[in-house]
């Protein structure tokens, strides 16, 4: 793997947390990945990819990915995460959770620092939370173990669509979509 960065890490963090393919939760909920796809990418600014491993015997999934970042990221770049939920796959999806758009540096010094960096650094060349702005570079994530325990309390049975976007001047530069079923 050869590239991955914080905005994508945040997508990954929610997408990877919500994109668990057949992972058992302690309360016997099962999360199944139905879809994980890149919706948009401005290849002048980024080149990215994500791969999920097949579940092992215990149902554990690992995430790997790359991001080639060709631009400097600061608080002018906003991360936008939104989750929608429906009772059935063909049902009407309604807003479940939305994180207000947050600047990359603001994100680094808050959610990223408090919830993700300590574990993420062992599987990647993730930037330190105090590093911002982020200058162009290549990031990678290798075999990051997904853990459903963080979200099992948040999700009720149903179907979820989670989008992660990276915006510059309100223009979508990078977007991923995950569709997850919770049984």
Automatic annotation (TrEMBL):
Task: Give the signal peptide range.
Answer: 1-25
What is the protein name stated in its UniProt record? CheA87a
What InterPro entries does the entry give? DUF1091, GM2-AP_sf
**Keywords assigned by UniProt?**
Signal
Task: Determine the domain of life of the protein's source.
Answer: Eukaryota
User: Species name for this entry?
Assistant: Drosophila busckii
Q: Does the keyword Signal apply?
A: yes
């Amino acid at each position: 793997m050869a590239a991955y960065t914080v905005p994508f890490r945040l997508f990954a963090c929610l997408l990877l947390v919500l994109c668990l393919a057949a992972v058992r939760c302690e309360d016997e909920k099962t999360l199944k990945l139905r879809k994980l796809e890149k919706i948009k990418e401005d290849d002048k600014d980024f080149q990215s990819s994500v791969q999920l491993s097949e579940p092992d015997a215990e149902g554990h999934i690992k995430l790997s990915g790359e991001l080639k970042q060709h631009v400097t990221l600061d608080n002018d770049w906003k991360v936008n995460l939104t989750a929608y939920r429906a009772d059935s796959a063909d049902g009407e999806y309604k807003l479940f959770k939305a994180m207000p758009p947050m600047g990359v540096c603001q994100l680094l010094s808050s959610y990223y620092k408090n919830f993700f960096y300590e574990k993420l650094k062992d599987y990647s060349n993730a930037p330190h939370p105090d590093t911002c702005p982020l200058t162009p570079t290549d990031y990678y994530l290798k075999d990051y173990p997904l853990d459903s325990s963080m979200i099992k309390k948040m999700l009720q049975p149903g179907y979820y669509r989670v989008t992660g976007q990276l915006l510059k001047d309100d223009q979508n530069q990078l977007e991923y979509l995950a569709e997850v079923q919770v049984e």
